[in-house]
């Protein structure tokens, strides 16, 4: 595994690369909101036996930069990932996005369909509107970043994990530490304040209808964050898509069912060889 830091669009982008000597396919992993490459810790060891893997920390999360001048919109995140892929001379990638990362993957498929061979959406965010005007205006208050910090501290990492994981026995100290660590640095709360202002709404139906990239949707049956009915609607709006529902699974499908996720990804990729 190689750890890398590259400056793109005025922010530092951290990514991990796992090169496969005999595979011509490259998988690019995009994590969800309040997460990092850590969320793919069980899936990466499986994926790298089949493909080359690039796992990205989307700013301001993980080890990527937390610049307050960076535009934290989905479109700019997408352009940043596109520039990263171009700098690495990647073509015909398999892009895998979890939750918010799925929405960014959809934006990339919409903006640069020539770059992507297949798109895998793991409990992808969809149909969310832009932040309310009142919240955006509040974000300009001098100490708003402290409000975000206190809100996240009050909810607590264990409580949040119990909301996204179906089988609570999988929650251990390693998992709690991995999801807590990025929030031990205060700079992230300033960047999250900027993110509230910059985040536009999810892709509307008419743009989803224009995406023809083959899309595999993998959903947890008991997802409380992005419920299954969202996945079913997304399946209808993405004309070239397939929906797989994992039993006894919540929102964190890469953590809970990595072997099943790999199985369905391999079958999906082989369909389009």
Automatic annotation (TrEMBL):
Listed GO MF terms: hydrolase activity
Domain AB hydrolase-1: 26-258
Domain of life: Bacteria
Keywords: Hydrolase
Gene3D superfamilies: alpha/beta hydrolase
Keyword Hydrolase: yes
CC per GO annotation: membrane
Pfam families associated with the record: Abhydrolase_1
Family matches, as InterPro entries: AB_hydrolase_1, AB_hydrolase_fold, AB_hydrolase_sf, Epox_hydrolase-like
Name used for this protein in its record: Hydrolase
Source organism per UniProt: Cytobacillus solani
